[in-house]
UniProtKB/TrEMBL annotation:
<dbReference type="GO" id="GO:0072546">
    <property type="term" value="C:EMC complex"/>
</dbReference>
<dbReference type="InterPro" id="IPR037518">
    <property type="entry name" value="MPN"/>
</dbReference>
<comment type="similarity">
    <text>Belongs to the EMC8/EMC9 family.</text>
</comment>
<protein>
    <recommendedName>
        <fullName>MPN domain-containing protein</fullName>
    </recommendedName>
</protein>
<feature type="domain" description="MPN">
    <location>
        <begin position="4"/>
        <end position="141"/>
    </location>
</feature>
<dbReference type="Pfam" id="PF03665">
    <property type="entry name" value="UPF0172"/>
</dbReference>
<dbReference type="InterPro" id="IPR005366">
    <property type="entry name" value="EMC8/9"/>
</dbReference>
Length: 201
């Protein structure tokens, strides 16, 4: 499995998005780079939907806009994230897999972050009970990475204080500064491309 590095921004966004809409299915894209050796460097992300359940023309529009935004930042769409509406549901659904396969085809590699909503309730021990489960494509299937973001994992964080920073952002309700494409469609002054940086690390 190729190495995957994750900035605080890329790690925080799925959790902030899920915290803002705890009873909705949320999703978005992860932006970064893929090296010639196949390593993925996740830099940031874009929140897309909190009313999304299937492939729709609006998803295609949002993905095209995300591609253009990423290109302007000299980045690429290299991943997908989702949090299911039911906290008991930690499955990676078929619609998410289809989007992830498209991203992988376009970028050469891809990763999916699946948010475990139950673990969002208590973030005190994120290292042991990580709320994000990365999925990678191996042997013709998307498989969850065991013990991610640990010293033994090929999926690592670039900033040592990421967990503390995310806990602070959620406890101070920074997720209210997150607007997704659904929000933008409801009210155009909501800038869905202006995800606030949690860290430059």
């Amino acid at each position: 499995m190729s190495a995957i590095t994750v900035t605080a921004d890329a790690y925080a966004l799925p959790l902030l998005h899920a915290a803002k809409y705890p009873h909705e299915q949320v999703c978005g894209v992860l932006l970064g780079e893929v090296t010639p050796q196949g390593a993925i460097h996740l830099k940031t992300g874009i929140p897309l939907f909190h009313h999304w359940t299937s492939l729709t023309p609006m998803l295609e529009v949002a993905l095209r806009q995300a591609d253009l935004y990423a290109a302007g930042k000299q980045l690429h769409v290299v991943g997908w994230y989702q949090a299911n509406a039911d906290e008991r549901d930690s499955n990676l659904h078929e619609t998410a897999i289809r989007v992830a396969n498209t991203i992988r085809k376009n970028a050469g590699q891809a990763v999916v972050f699946n948010v475990n909503n139950r673990r969002l309730v208590n973030l005190e021990d994120m290292a042991q009970e990580n709320p994000i489960v990365p999925y990678v494509y191996e042997n013709n299937a998307w498989v969850g990475v065991k013990n991610p973001f640990s010293g033994k994992s090929s999926v690592t964080l670039t900033y040592d204080e990421t967990y503390a920073k995310v806990r602070g952002m959620i406890s101070s309700a920074k997720y209210n500064q997150i607007y997704d494409f659904d929000d933008h469609l409801d009210s155009v002054e909501h800038d869905w491309l202006a995800y606030p940086n949690s860290s430059s690390k």
